[in-house]
Design brief:
The protein has 271 residues and is α+β, with helices and mostly antiparallel strands. 24% of the residues lie in helices and 21% in strands. It binds a DNA duplex (16 and 16 nucleotides) through helix 5.
DNA sequence: ATAATCACCTGCTCGC
DNA sequence: TGCGAGCAGGTGATTA
């Protein structure tokens, strides 16, 4: 999926286009994405104005005058702004029409996404209450990772991909951050020193910021709100590069499976 | 409590 | 050219 840089790129793309706009209609073309879509969504949304678009973890929050829309792109989702009459293509599951004649279109081939209306404060939504810190915030640090990992035998890669540990780090950026920090992805989380966790926390921030600057990473589906792909793929150092030389030492990058997820690393540079 | 596995979907690539 | 197997950016639920 879209990991944090892709979701944030999407947020920045759509916010200026829908902020202060009034919703005039909602079109649902499938009964469910990951979970059933509320068939009354239209009645709940029409007439409301968008106050802001924010992000928590990989969730987008479209804040309305009454309540909020919670949106997750899942593995393959993307959002685009299109003129109202644009014919729906394959996997264009939801349209939200606005008074200016534009429409926010949710495309999601694998339908693992989420779109739900929530009345209360979004932070109280059950899906958001157990999330860890934002990786780019100051409360996310090596000390935090170190403390949270003591006595954990879980491999460090699934540990940092657990959204209760830290949010926003998915399969691509987990491999990239561990490479940059020189840590083997299969090392037990509880057997990594504070010093090394400080480096890892720093590299997580660095790689996410660099990807954000490039508009995210497009593997196949992801698109920015204007339809352009993300350009960070060219800067990936290990993800998807098994068999190719390590950019640092030249030894071949290896691919292994860790917690059912493909994992890429350099046996020489990562210990 | 923690860790591993399964499940939700479609589409694409690979090997035969 | 066709077909089944395996895999893909996420994450909640279920099982040991």
């Amino acid at each position: 999926m879209p990991e944090l840089p892709e979701v944030e790129t999407t947020r920045r793309g759509i916010e200026p286009l829908i902020c202060n706009q009034q919703i005039t209609g909602v079109v649902l073309r499938v009964p469910k994405l990951r979970w059933p879509l509320d068939p009354h969504l239209s009645e709940l949304l029409v007439g409301q104005r968008v106050l802001a678009v924010s992000r928590r973890a990989k969730y987008l929050l479209i804040r309305l005058e009454q309540g909020s829309l919670l949106l997750h792109l899942g593995m393959s989702g993307s959002l685009r702004m299109v003129p109202l009459q644009t014919p729906a293509g394959k996997h264009d599951h939801v349209d939200i029409h606005f008074a200016d004649g534009q429409s926010l279109r949710f495309n999601d081939p694998r339908r693992f996404g989420l779109l739900a209306f929530f009345q209360g404060t979004p932070d109280d939504h059950p899906l958001l209450t157990h999330l860890g810190p934002e990786p780019l915030a100051t409360d996310f640090s090596g000390t935090f990772l170190f403390q949270r990992s003591r006595k954990r035998r879980l491999a460090v890669k699934p540990f940092i991909m657990d959204q209760r540990t830290v949010v926003g780090v998915g399969n691509i950026y987990a491999s990239e951050a561990l490479f940059r920090a020189g840590i083997r992805p299969d090392r037990a989380a509880g057997r990594i020193s504070l010093t090394r966790y400080e480096e890892l926390a720093w590299q997580i921030k660095e790689v996410l910021l660099a990807a954000l600057e490039a508009g995210g990473t497009t593997v196949s589906d992801f698109r920015q709100a204007d339809g352009r792909p993300g350009y960070f793929k060219q800067q990936l150092q290990v993800y998807g590069r098994d068999g190719l030389p390590c950019p640092v030492c030249g030894q071949g990058i290896v691919k292994v499976s860790l917690g059912q997820r493909s994992t890429f690393f350099c046996r020489h540079c990562q210990r």
